[in-house]
User: Which sequence fits this backbone?
């Protein structure tokens, strides 16, 4: 079954191309001081349509990796002037996890401990030079597939599929590390149950997507997450509650004034918002913002409380 002229058809085609030609467009960085070996690996990888980048030594490779988060695989030599491959791998792992990048060590070293040294430093695999082509492609493909699967899993675990916003898990894993002075706002749609009851669950979903779109548009670059059913959290740099209050008040008013056209008529709704800032720990701020959100509810909804 091949669907025609739909995004699904396009995806299907891409999948088939990948299956036939082995991952076109996937970026591989080859690190080796020998131009001959780099050329040889480049030629092998291009045969399978990988996009190949090259670095003659470790520091160049580190710079390229910092600048380009789309590189999915590093193939690295060990003996190079300057930093060794093993040292470079341990430095790469300080800023690129196994979920983002696969690393395969490749060396002609006769040292039986070389495999372990590479893997302990953070490599995923190791090959001894000279190697068999088929084994080379098996390992390259395996490692690229593995990192792509990890990426897909991590995305599924951290992203809310309805709104595309980071979810609660992402928020806690990434935001609790925050060290700057900041504030949090907890946003909850008022009488959301009524929207579902009156317009249907699909229009309820639409309202959630619209709120997410508006949050993204009005708070670019800020940490935003869908925290629960119809509850969102924004974390922004703020020295005081006043800093955050004005922005949240503008947001509340813009949603209260908005009319959302739907297949079942015009939809309007309001938000209640609790704001807290000026405490050094996120958990305490979240608790306070939550209390203030309930204060906003009890005072009649459609308002921001600090
Ligand atoms: P309040 O003003 O006090 O916040 O009232 P409310 O109705 O907004 O809050 P309540 O917590 O009573 O109800 C929230 C509803 O949100 C209940 C649940 O069915 C609905 N909900 C949760 N997640 C989703 C979702 O993903 N899509 C839709 N359509 N509804 C959802
Ligand atoms: Mg070398
Ligand atoms: Mg609600
Ligand atoms: Mg709620």
Assistant:
């Amino acid at each position: 079954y091949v669907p025609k002229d739909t995004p699904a058809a396009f995806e299907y085609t891409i999948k088939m191309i990948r299956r036939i030609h082995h991952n076109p467009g996937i970026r591989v960085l080859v690190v080796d001081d020998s131009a001959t070996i780099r050329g040889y690996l480049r030629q092998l990888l291009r045969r399978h349509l990988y996009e190949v980048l090259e670095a003659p030594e470790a520091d160049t490779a580190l710079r390229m990796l910092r600048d380009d988060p789309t590189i999915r695989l590093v193939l690295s030599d060990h003996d190079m002037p300057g930093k060794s491959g093993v040292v470079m791998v341990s430095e790469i792992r300080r800023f690129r996890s196994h979920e983002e990048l696969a690393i395969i060590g490749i060396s002609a070293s006769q040292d039986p401990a070389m495999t372990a040294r590479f893997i302990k430093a953070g490599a995923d695999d190791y090959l001894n030079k000279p190697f068999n082509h088929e084994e080379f492609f098996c390992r390259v493909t395996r490692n690229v597939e593995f990192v792509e699967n990890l990426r897909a899993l991590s995305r599924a675990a951290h992203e809310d599929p309805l709104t595309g916003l980071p979810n609660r898990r992402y928020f806690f894993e990434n935001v609790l590390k925050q060290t700057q002075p900041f504030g949090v706002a907890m946003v909850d749609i008022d009488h959301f149950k009524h929207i579902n009851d009156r317009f249907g669950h699909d229009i309820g979903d639409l309202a959630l997507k619209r709120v997410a779109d508006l949050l993204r548009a009005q708070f670019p670059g800020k940490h935003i997450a869908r925290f629960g059913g119809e509850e969102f959290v924004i974390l922004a740099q703020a020295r005081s509650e006043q800093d955050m209050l004005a922005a949240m008040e503008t947001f509340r008013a813009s949603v209260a004034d908005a009319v959302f056209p739907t297949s079942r008529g015009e939809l309007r709704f309001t938000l209640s918002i609790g704001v807290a800032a000026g405490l050094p720990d996120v958990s305490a701020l979240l608790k306070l913002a939550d209390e203030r959100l309930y204060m906003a509810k009890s005072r009649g909804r459609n308002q921001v409380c600090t």
About this structure: The chain has eleven helices and twelve strands. The pocket of 3'-deoxy-guanosine-5'-triphosphate (ligand 1) is lined by residues 162, 188-193, 196, 201, 204-205, 208, 229-230, 297, 301 (CB under 6 Å). The radius of gyration is 25 Å. Residues 188 and 230 are 6 Å apart (CA to CA).
